[in-house]
# Entry
Amino acid sequence: MKRSFYFWLSIGFIVYLLDRLIKLFFLKSPNYHWDFFNPFLQFDLAGNQGIAFGWSLNKLFILFLSFLIILIILYLAYKFWQEKKYHLSLASYLIILGAVSNLIDRLRFGFVIDYINVSFFTIFNLADCLITVGVVIFVVDLLFLDRVDKKQNLD
# Structure
């Protein structure tokens, strides 16, 4: 299990680096636009000063909340590792990688750089995808794997 943990963590880190590079590209070429699958999927620069889905909050509060959440999840990742719950530790690290990438944007530019535009949904970035995958792993564990563990303990 540790081997697959490191493999998926490496993939997560590669996605993090790709996210940083794409953000740099869009900062250097702010007018770049690519209709990948028109009209549903385009790639272009958008600055998000709010949080998820563009919801607006005080900037200082967002920074404080981001740091707090990263610290809490870092602690959870450590606890999950100690408990040999490697999938939950991986989920934690994926969330941290995505949160750190977006936090870097907030600290350097005052907003998060988004670039994947899904016309019927929202505009987001690869860091958001890392966060989402981490959360999905937590939800699957909570809804399914945790029940299996409890059922096996009852038998």
